[in-house]
Amino acid sequence: MRNFFRAVKIGLRYRITCIGIVLCSLLVALFWSANIGTIYPLVEVVFQGKSVPQYLTESISELEAELVEKQELLQATPDNQSRSFITTQISGLQKEMGIHQRLLPYARQYLPDNAFDTLVIVVGLMIGGTILKDLILMSNIILTQRFTQLAVFNLRKDFYRRTLKMSVRSFHDDRSTELLSRFTNDTEVVTQGIYQLLGKAVREPLKMATCLVAAALISWRLLLLCLVVTPFAAILLGYLSKALRRSNRKAMQEMASMYGLIGETFKGIVAVKAFNMEAYERKRFHDSAKRYYLKAMDIAKYNSMTRPTTEIMGMTIVGLAILTGGYLVLNQETHLLGIQICVNPMSFGDMMTFFAFLVGASDPLRKIADVFNVIQRGAAAADRIYELLDRDPDLPEAKNPAPTPETIQKIEFKHVDFGYTSDLQTLKDVSLTITGGQTVALVGPNGCGKSTLARMVPRFFDPKSGTVLINDIDIATLRKRELREKISMVTQNAIMFDDTVLNNLKYGKRDATMQEVEAAAQKAKAHQFIESKLEHGYNTVIGEGGGKLSGGQRQRLALARAILTDPEIIILDEATSQVDLESEQVIHQVLAEFLANRTAIMITHRLANLQLADRIIVMDQGRIIDDGTHEELMQRNRIYQRMAGSELKDIA
Ligand code: ADP
Questions:
Q1: Is ligand 1 within 6 A of the CB of residue 455?
Q2: What's phi and psi for 402, nearest 5 deg?
């Protein structure tokens, strides 16, 4: 529950809303018990065929007679203990009579003198009271929604901020669909939880409390006696709440993996169809949905027990009250099993009002039982959200960041070791110095760690041991934002957003002018196809992941985007692998121009591109095995010779 209350706490900063909610809930609760406490006795008076003044007058004379009787009894009693008991009884009667005497003039002045007119007033009061109560209830609902939505609005923003801060690696570990599930499903569940907590879970206990207080005013001893069953029910409810939270957490995990499965299948729909895997995917989905179903049934089982628990408790309380109260009233007793329950024997009216209050207290209990699961679910969801929010950032920002150098004189890897998991070593003792303005090509077999090495420059990962330095400054001591401003990256699957061409191009430089964008597109040989082949030119929306473009077009846009930001360092990770042979020569020129006097790391398997490199680094199994120019490597490196021999076709 701790995390759930942390989410609730976010809403507490909206003070006026909070005060409004508590005030409205309190008013609703007061109206609730006032309805029971006044309407019921009034109805009772009316159905005895009396008006209120009549009733009060008669009751005063009855009390007077009773007082006289008691006083006579007091004089005739010698025993001290009995005398003190009678004295308390007398003072009780006097108190009651005092109240009636004080009420009588007001009743005479304001209330009608016949029973039917009194009934009209009772009905009027009932309707008026309900209208007023409902108006307050409406405000309460709106204020509660405001509180809830604002709390979750802020929670979502915190969550988004935190996820954007997550390292690339944790994104791989957590899977984006899992995060999506926390974002959508879990935050929605928290919303419902908070709403119910602030709505019913504040209002209903208040309603219950006012009724219990009123019942206690009639006879607190009788109330205590009736409430003996509550501890047992509380223990059972405690157990149920734990079980519910546990099951809800598991159900949410299942829901997240279902999201993952659907996302994965939809993304890979072409493969699913090409390999006729529909039946297999259906089976996987069936298994996942079935697991969710089983968890949902667990929840239903525990949930189904909460209502009976509270209802049986409520019924036992009322039952006990009827039995004990009935015994006291019927026998006109003040004691039960030797325990004093009331001062004077209770009247039938008092007893009925007492019952009415108990019933009034058990109705909110029933409503609380209904929201019990929603709140437990909210608590489980809050745990999942805060689990991520509370994680230590895995790429912490430096405490006192060093200023990022303006110009790059050198990038240096010093004995860098790295592995995505603790038992796997992707990079082994890599040492490499790249001088500013140099273009370095990384070549080597698939999976040998080229991309990983390149991605250490913008600090997507921190080395397990060793350091990455820029101009002799450890990049871990730089501000990540400033470091990354210096770097542009073009990858094999050029990353595009479902937006216009223009916005995609301006992604790294939001304030670029149209002229700058067009100039960059021209340099990347993208301008022509944007203008002539796309329906709305630069304003064409290119679909999810740039799906409406060909692979080559996407890559030219990605190049244009990098050119526009004019970075100090450029990383090209298979950036031209999808460009068709025809445009390869054009792109070659583009790159030649773009890479001149710029520090570049290029991962490529195209011989033509390798000619643009000042140095070629040969990697194998996470290590650098050679370093030289194309000519040098052709002369001395067997692996390189073999790769070049097959036009470096299968090395990347
Ligand atoms: P290359 O670019 O040379 O093809 P990579 O640097 O992409 O190689 O990958 C090096 C190794 O690290 C491979 O064995 C790959 O399976 C593994 N790897 C890459 N990315 C991840 C990741 N996010 N999580 C776990 N392992 C990874």
A1: no
A2: -80, 150
Say what the pLDDT of residue 202 is: 80
Distance CA 16, CA 106 (A): 38
Task: Give the integer Cα–Cα distance in Å for 484 and 290.
Answer: 45
Residue 343 CA to residue 340 CA, distance in Å, equals 8
Angle between the N-to-C axes of helices 15-34 and 2-12, in degrees from 0 to 180, rounded to the nearest 10: 100
d(CA 378, CA 371): 11
What the block records as the tokens of 502 is 């223009």
Q: Which residues pair with 435 in a beta bridge?
A: 410
Contact status, residue 57 vs residue 235, Cβ threshold 8 Å = no
The helix (H) or strand (E) run that includes residue 164 is helix 115-165
Measured CA to CA, the distance from residue 103 to residue 121 in angstroms comes to 17
420 lines ligand 1 (CB under 6 A): yes
Distance from the alpha carbon of residue 511 to the mean position of ligand 1, in angstroms: 35
How many C-beta neighbours within 10 Å does residue 128 have? 10
Q: pTM for this one?
A: 0.73
pLDDT single digits (tens) 130-148: 888 889 989 988 999 999 9
Any ligand 1 atom below 6 A from CB of 449: yes
User: Is residue 515 in contact with ligand 1, taking CB distance under 6 Å?
Assistant: no
pLDDT higher than 50, residue 410? yes
650 within ligand 1 shell (Cβ under 6 A): no
Looking from the CA of residue 573, the nearest atom of ligand 1 is 2
DSSP labels for 234-285? HHHHHHHHHHHHHHHHHHHHHHHHHHHHHHHHHHTHHHHHHTT-HHHHHHHH
Ligand 1 pocket test: pick from 451, 460, 651 the residue with the most ligand atoms within 8 Å of its Cβ: 451
CB 342 within 8 A of CB 222: yes
Q: Does residue 577 have its Cβ closer than 6 Å to ligand 1? A: no
Residue nearest to atom 25 of ligand 1 (CA): 420
If you measure from the C-alpha of residue 167 to the centroid of ligand 1, how many angstroms do you get, rounded to a whole number? 15
pLDDT 10s digits, 385-409? 998 888 877 788 888 888 988 888 9
pLDDT surpassing 60 at residue 651: no
| Nearest protein CA to atom 23 of ligand 1, as residue | 172
Q: How far is the CA of 164 from the centre of ligand 1 (A)?
A: 22
Largest Cα separation within the chain, whole Å, is: 131
Structural domains in the chain, CATH included, are 2-51+112-389 (1.20.1560.10)
pLDDT tens digit sequence for 338-364: 777 777 777 777 788 888 888 888 888
Answer whether 205 contacts ligand 1 (Cβ < 6 A): no
Contact between 163 and 351 under an 8 Å Cβ cutoff? The reply is: no
User: pLDDT above 90 covers what percent of the chain?
Assistant: 23
- H/E stretch holding 53 reads helix 52-76
Report the chain's mean pLDDT, rounded to a whole number: 85
Q: Is the CB of 604 under 6 A from ligand 1?
A: no
Q: Are 639 and 624 in contact (CB under 8 A)?
A: no
DSSP of 275-320: TT-HHHHHHHHHHHHHHHHHHHHHHHHHHHHHHHHHHHHHHHHHHH
CB atoms within 10 A of CB 417: 15
**Given pLDDT bands bounded at 50, 70 and 90, which one contains residue 446?**
confident
Q: Could you tell me whether strands 569-573 and 487-491 are parallel, antiparallel, or unpaired per DSSP bridges?
A: parallel
